[in-house]
Amino acid sequence: MTVDPIEPAEAMRVARAALPIRTDRLVLRTLRPDDLDAVRAYRNAPGQRRWTYNRDQTEAELMAWTAGDAPVFLRDGDAMQLGIELDGRLVGDLMVRITSLASRQAELGWTVAAEAQGKGVATEAAQAALELAFALGAHRVSAQLDEQNVASRRVAERIGMAVEGRFVEDEVNPATGELGTSLYLAARRTG
């Protein structure tokens, strides 16, 4: 089967037209400079880095994260970071990354503040992001997470992703210094 690549200009048009995305309870939108304090609070919260495999983010990294840029998909690896609002308050963010334009592949990732966890926020946001990734032209959308991150695995499975791979002790977690085992989950567009 011949596959046409994701066309960058079309993907950017689709993303810009879709934003902000409104679900039953949430608004997904580009992050803005005035989100800096909220993003710092939940991204650098104690224990949060355990699941994101990063050290605490510096002030400059957080400023870049919240610059408020429009989505740009020019090459493999380009991503957009969307804020997750619940009741008008930023409670997390999620990433939609084009991992391969030619193979029509995308990746999702999400982070939700501790006080908003366990309320279906991540699942609702991830479902909307999955639909957006398919609208951008992705055929397959994946998520990579630590095997011990049971909550994120449940989110991925609730939105239709299935485990496709398990990589034992494949990466050192900078937050803990320990080797972690990664799960790779994915969903494919049907129809």
Automatic annotation (TrEMBL):
Q: Which PROSITE patterns match?
A: GNAT
Q: Where is the N-acetyltransferase domain?
A: 26-190
The entry lists its GO molecular-function terms as:
acyltransferase activity, transferring groups other than amino-acyl groups
Q: Which InterPro entries match?
A: Acyl_CoA_acyltransferase, GNAT_dom, N-acetyltransferase
Against PANTHER family, the record matches this protein to: GNAT FAMILY, PUTATIVE (AFU_ORTHOLOGUE AFUA_3G00765)-RELATED-RELATED (PTHR43792), N-ACETYLTRANSFERASE DOMAIN-CONTAINING PROTEIN (PTHR43792:SF1)
The name under which this protein is listed is Protein N-acetyltransferase, RimJ/RimL family
Q: Report the source organism.
A: Agrococcus baldri
